[in-house]
Amino acid sequence: MSLFRSIVFASVLVGLIVGVAVSAAQFLGTSQLILKAEVYEKAVETSGQHAAASSKDHSALAVHAHEAEAWEPADGFERRAYTVVTNVLTAIGYALVLTGIIAIRGKPVTWREGLLWGLAGFACVVLAPIFGLPPELPGTPSAPLPNRQIWWIGTAFATAASIGLAVFVRKPWAVVAAVVLVAIPHLIGAPAAPDGAHALAPEALEREFIEHAVLTSLVFWLLLGSLSGTLLSRFET
Amino acid sequence: MSASQAISTAKAGIDTSIVNLLQSALAVCFGLMIIGLVGFSHIDVLHNAAHDSRHANAFPCH
């Protein structure tokens, strides 16, 4: 079997397992907190304060109101089904990247080493961005979406490059470069929310959401890493 | 093994490693494209379908 096919088969299988498992965890945690936060968000929308706010500036809330006009899955089964599908797709995407990089390195990975690969992934896309852009509930004030996306992507890539340098090159200059790379996004700083804006959901709910999101993501990445490593070796032999 | 055989074997080895490298890199690109669509697309329908997943997986949303 060609290496590409092995990577794709392994990643799809990993994505299905991790996506379904993580969806189950999300339904018990983050999804319920999102629904609670949307109660506050909808209350503001219906009270009319929202219309006044959106006419003055292009806040995140105004963007959200615009999006609400488009199709969205109905609450309940349909919404959960789309969450499962998109979690599986996200897991397949991350598995392709992780398994692809493992294959580029060219050494077989055991499930234990896979856990470390998973932790590295977690560090890149959850731990590093969390300092500037923590996971958010709907209704949390924030800077324009494209600016946040650029910072997030830059942070993830800089952290990945930093880990790669520190772990695989292991020369003094590489360690220095790794430290600089990991620090740069945080020295630049994440795009800040507009002054005076406040979250619609209570702070305790927001904190609970961050804890759930981080823990679920940790499970996501540990599973993804250990399965990616072992399944690629299986498909390759 | 003659010298010419040794050279062609070595060449085949290099070719295979380049092919493997390209195939692995292609897989990484595919993965990034999927993440881009699911986690970052500004298309309303995609955003709404992936909404809860984006929030829970710590992608910037809204």
Question: Could you describe the 3D structure shown?
Answer:
The complex is a heterodimer of chains A (237) and B (62). Chain A has nine helices and no strands. The longest helix of chain A has 34 residues, at 203-236. By secondary structure, chain A is mainly α. Chain B is mainly α and 62 residues long. Chain B contains three helices and no strands. Classes of the chains: A mainly alpha (237), B mainly alpha (62).
Give a brief outline of the structure:
Chain A: It holds the Pfam family CbtA. Chain A is mainly alpha-helical and 237 residues long. Helices cover 78% and strands 0% of the residues of chain A.
List the helices and strands and how they pair.
The complex is a heterodimer of chains A (237) and B (62).
Chain A: H1 3-28, H2 30-47, H3 49-56, H4 60-67, H5 77-105, H6 111-130, H7 145-169, H8 172-188, H9 203-236
Chain B: H1 3-40, H2 44-49, H3 51-56
Supply database-style keywords.
heterodimer; A: 237 residues; mainly alpha; 2 domains; 9 helices; 78% helix; globular; B: 62 residues; 3 helices; rod-shaped; transmembrane helix (chain A)
Radius of gyration of chain A: 20 Å
Give the overall shape of chain B, derived from the CA principal axes: rod-shaped
Q: Count the strands of chain A?
A: 0
Number of strands of chain B: 0
Question: In DSSP terms, counting alpha (H) and pi (I) runs of 4 or more, how many helices of chain B?
Answer: 3
Q: How many distinct folded domains of chain B?
A: 1
Order of secondary-structure elements of chain B: HHH
Number of helices of chain A: 9
Helix content of chain B: over 70%
Strand content of chain A: under 5%
The end-to-end distance of chain B, rounded to whole angstroms, is 65 Å
SSE run of chain A: HHHHHHHHH
The tally of domains of chain A stands at 2
How much helix, percentage-wise, in residues of chain A?
A: over 70%
Mean of the pLDDT scores of chain B?
A: 89
Low-pLDDT sequence parts of chain A: none
